[in-house]
Amino acid sequence: MTRFPTAGHLASWAGMAPGNNITGGKRQSGTTTKGNVWLAEILNQCAWSAARSRNTYLSAQYWRLARRIGKKKAATAVGHSILVICWHLLSNNADYDDLGGDYFTRRATPTDTKTTSSDNSRTSATKSHCAKWHRPRRDIHG
Description:
The chain is mainly α and about 140 residues long. The chain has helices at about 5-15, 35-50, 55-70, 70-90, 105-110, 115-135, and strands spanning about 20-25, 25-30.
């Protein structure tokens, strides 16, 4: 893997790099780069089969993205993830360790949900301060 210094270089060569379309400070989705059509097609097929597997990280990623951006774009994104994983495995001579299907739910749960008494007093003071400035409007005509 010395030919590709980073996973991004490999993804760009394979045609799996995400497009970038920014105008007026707003990010929009773009088309993927042109690259190795055969490899991109194989990675998309792998992404479809990974999406059908149960309780894996790639399946969770696919279904999480498919709700938001559609199934075909989600398959392309998962194909990109598969390529990045392959680059890391080959360049580091490592074994694949799946993060699990519940990775995104574990990551989203807050670890510290306790509030101290000083936090409670501060929020109540803020609420009373806000209530002072946000009174209902008086009826002018009535």
